[in-house]
Amino acid sequence: MNSPTVRGKEAPRPYFFLSYAHTPRVNSRGAADPNLWVAKLYQDLCEAILQITDLPAGHPIGFMDRSMHQGQKWAERLSRELASCRVFVPLYSPRYFKSEACGREWHLFTRRSVYQRRPTAERMTGIVPALWVPMDHYPLPRVAGELQFNHDSFGEDYAAEGLYALMKITTFSSQYHTAVWRLAQRIVDVAEQTVIPAGQVFDFESQPSAFDPPDVADKVRISVFSYSQPELPPQRSGAWYGEQRTDWQPFRPDSSRPLAQDAADVARNMGFQPTVREFEEEAEHLLTGERPSAPCVLLVDRWAFLDARRVEAVRRLDRRNLGSVAIIEPWNREDQQSRDHERMLNELGDSVLAVSRGALQKPSLRDDAAAGAPGSLEEFRGEMERAVMRACTAHEQHHRDRPDDGPTDRRPSIGP
Q1: Longest pairwise C-alpha distance within the chain
Q2: What letter would DSSP give residue 328?
Q3: Taking the CA atoms of the chain, what radius of gyration do you get in angstroms?
Q4: CA-CA to 340 of 20 to 30 Å: which in 46, 177, 184, 309?
Q5: Alpha helices per DSSP H over 89-172
Q6: Residues 241-268, buried b or exposed e (16+ Cβ, 10 A)?
Q7: The dihedral of CA 366, 369, 371, 372: what is its sign?
């Protein structure tokens, strides 16, 4: 598939593609979106490039993925932009190089040919990296370590602190504006000194990551406690279920695919390597031994509490109270059937998840009538991010606290 055209001519191509890792919110509802700082940087870069160049009104200056939406249309849009942009701007952070989606973006851009308009001492790649946070003490993957790029003209504070700190700390205001101006100049220089023909639009989801493969410590196990359609009790509709227990889709019609796939995408975009299984396949692993071998997130369908034969294993897991196992109870307020049986399902949940609910004071994503904010797919994704971080932090803390483990080569803590 070739680049888009307008009346036989090539469509205007944006100067740059801003590639960054989405940061999870610090806490639940009402918390500010931390990615708004990246959006401000993107806007400042666009304004600076507009001043430097003679781009006409309406010409695309850059591209930044603000949606975090998953699915075919989202992937196609990313692939189209990566096939047409003139410069690729990765925003360096530890989270960036753990993100599989960012690694795919890097890989797709580097599939395109790069030609230099004139010989220079520096080999142009079309990639202009920017420091979101300092990376001095963090090992870069091979593809990033091989880049030839000098940040000296951006200022000492930029190299020492990164763009995020320059934005957040008032005394660094002038240094931030200098760094943005230098970055915009660099983007324009690279775009004008290279010829990077528009590339083919590939399937985004099938592309490999350009970064080094994740180590074992980056695994996250996702399990689902729910029903398959043949197992459903008489009072529950099969509209939310499929042939497998992992096919549970509580947020239809907002999402037409299993919730576990959304959960895996969230973990994957955070730089983790997720697996998805039915709870029963994971139960022995979770209920025996001192601790699970990897952080876990359990997605609980409260309707499944009606299955007295299976629910005892969930009750036992709750009593173990393992910090490395995070439990989420997605609850769709648009599901009238669940609303009609809410009191019964809440009482069942209180008896099964007595420890978890006691600690949380209310189930995750269960609607708080006073707040008037029902559970939704968007809220689930935010809660999934926080659950992954809680489970991973507890898992690593446990291994650090064990005196008999001896020295190990572990990745840096992802705790706060």
Answers
A1: 74
A2: E
A3: 24
A4: 309
A5: 100-110, 142-145, 156-161, 163-168
A6: bbeebbbbbbbeeebeebbbbbbbbbbb
A7: positive
Residue 415: both structure tokens together? 């705790």
Instruction: Read off the pLDDT of residues 295-328 as tens digits, 9 standing for 90 and up.
Output: 999 999 999 999 999 999 999 999 999 989 999 9
Residue among 219, 175, 206 nearest 79 (CA): 206
Cβ burial 152-162 (10 Å sphere, 16+ → b, else e): eebbebbeebb
Residue 88 CB coordination number (10 Å): 24
Q: Is the pLDDT of residue 84 over 80?
A: yes
The token duo for 369 is 């009538």
Q: How many Å separate Cα 212 from the centre of its chain?
A: 17
- Please state whether beta strands 273-278 and 219-225 pair in parallel, antiparallel, or not at all (unpaired): parallel
Is 110 exposed, middle or buried, given 0-12, 13-18 or 19+ CB atoms closer than 10 A? middle
Distance of CA 202 to the CA centre of its chain: 21
Q: Which two tokens stand for residue 406?
A: 């001896």
Other C-beta atoms lying within 10 Å of the C-beta of residue 62: 21
Range among 203-207, 310-314, 358-362, 401-405 rated most confident? 310-314
- Res 363: pLDDT: 46
Report whether pLDDT(81) > 60: yes
Whether 398 contacts 227, CB under 8 Å: no
Give the list of residues 6+ apart from residue 323 with CB closer than 8 angstroms, or none.
Answer: 390, 391, 394, 395, 397, 398
